[in-house]
Hints:
By secondary structure, this protein is α/β, with parallel strands linked by helices. The protein has helices at 74-81, 115-127, 147-153, 172-175, 191-203, 248-254, 289-294; strands at residues 2-10, 15-21, 35-40, 46-50, 61-66, 87-90, 94-95, 105-111, 132-138, 158-162, 183-188, 211-214, 229-233, 240-242, 273-277, 280-281, 297-298, 304-305, 309-313. The model has no long low-confidence stretch (mean pLDDT 93).
Amino acid sequence: MDVIIDKIHQLTPTIRAFELVTADNQQLPEFTAGSHIDVFLKNGLIRQYSLSNCCREHHRYVIGVLYDANTRGGSACLHEQYTEGDLLSISAPRNLFDIHPQTETAILFAGGIGITPILAMAYHLKKNNTPFELHYFVRSREQIAFYGNLNAHFAEQTYFHISDEAETIPDMNKILAAPHPTKHLYVCGPNGFMDFIFDAAHQAHWENAQLHQEHFVAEKIDTSDDQAFILEVKGYEKPIEVAAHQSVANALIAHGFDIPLSCEQGICGTCMLKVVDGIPEHRDLFMTDAEHAANTHFTPCCSRAKSDRLVIEI
Length: 314
């Protein structure tokens, strides 16, 4: 669907918030805290951005976009080629980072741009009178995004941890003390930051079922030992050789198959395909460990095959 960029806010030197509304001021599809939308950019890319506003707001969506010097083209396009009043094509919201229904107390951790889904969670938890703390990690005060929202609505629950201010260094043992099955932890930010939080939680004896995270970028995978393998598509007679340097998705596209691609990192699940036979080498962050073990689906944008032959259904 098409929306209009109603307002653009410069939150930090590198982060902008985009407020999206319908052209006729009608209500937008409902969403839940932790949801994201696909954004279809004018340069042909599709990127996912978390919704940061309260899910009880139906007249707008708010996304935060970090201008990344190492961008693959998505954030630069939004920052440089879009202005207030422009049309933007988006998908309906979907949620891969939902608040667990048994959450009676929550600890929210955000690193940098990871505040976007965490902010929406804070709105939801406060509206539902669910006790929570929000710990926001940034390198400097000027990098605090949505500071006005946090200060106005969650001043009592929010703790800022700023790298260049020693007095704000967190006591992780204290924060993560007394884990409980109804106490859940939610974290979003750079991969190294999330690893740090999860490592601390495991050391404090939190169970995996209580830990939830959302990735923005997949870790770089070593592909130097990748081998070619044969791919068979159910109902398609010709076997497809996937070269060592080639993704399954690109091999399928080269043979005329229409494979929807979005993140191309195994994060969003847009390209998910069914496995009929063979053993995939899962490299995605979308599916759970149990889903990987079942070997019934895989993501052709990044995953490969452990077996010499992989049979799939499209």
